[in-house]
Amino acid sequence: MTGFLLDLWHDLREKRLAPVAVLLLVALIAVPVVMLKPASSSEGDPGAPAVAAGSTSQPTIVDAAQEGAGEGSDLGVFDPRNPFRPPPGMRAGPNANGDPITAIEPESPLGGVSTGAGPDPGSIGGGGGGGVTAPEPAPVPDPVGPVEPVEPGEPVRRSFTYVADVRFGRTGEERRRTVQRLELLPSAKNPVVVFLGVSATRKRAVFLLDTRFSQAGEGICRPSAATCSYIYLSPKKGESEHYFTDADGNAYRLDLLRIRRVEVGGRASAKGSGTGRGSPQARADAVGRRPLPVFVDEERVN
Fold first, then answer.
1. Which of 132, 144, 169, 205 supports an S-S bond with 174, CB 3.0-4.6 Å?
2. Which has the closest alpha carbon to 81: 111, 105, 104, 110?
3. 215 forms bridges with which residues in the sheet?
4. Is the model's pTM score more than 0.70?
5. Are 161 and 273 in contact (CB under 8 A)?
6. Alpha-carbon distance 200 to 180, whole Å?
7. Which of 126-140, 154-168, 214-228, 254-268 has the lowest mean pLDDT?
């Protein structure tokens, strides 16, 4: 046993742990001694209040039972104040809606509310002072009756036809005129050409030629130049003129000025389709004939 302790001591010294081992040994011996030592009678109760030296008076012990049953912390020492009142001295002004705000009554020096007229019954605030005037309720709109459904209107159908503005007549005696479909030039008694209408592209006017007349000019012949039954003319320069000559040597000149689309039944139709004074329709009415029918080339629905 002695050898074991000596070896342990040498090991602690080599590792420089001998002081620590000595302190631990002393602590193991001192702690039980201190714990087993009896308490001194001269020490007072640590929970008792300390009494000053030389004082002979005993500490006064207040019993909670001696206090009144209804007595507690006295809050009456503080000034009563309405938490919903603005601080004193604040000036009244309009609110966000522009409505006036009632004046704020200052508090009395005693902490209460100064005597005066009470708050307006319509004002908002606590019972101890004036507040913000309540806005008047918005008027309730009259109930709107059931809205009758609107029936869509009838579609408007519009009809259009094409007319041609030409200069036609014997060479040197041409006159300007507007012709409609199936109108004969120069007249129904001595026709040379008939205006049939416009081509599918709406860019050329089509005329039917009397085969007794020879022809030449800038128009396009159909079905061929040798058998020219239909002549196609355009208002463009170099494609608008054509000449015709009968067996007696009378020469006629046809010049297409422009092609117009007019509405059937409108002013443009009545003005431009040869229904005025001196027109084929007026001349037909004068001799008791039927006027030419108005052909519809296009229809649109709005």
1. 169
2. 111
3. 244
4. no
5. yes
6. 17
7. 126-140
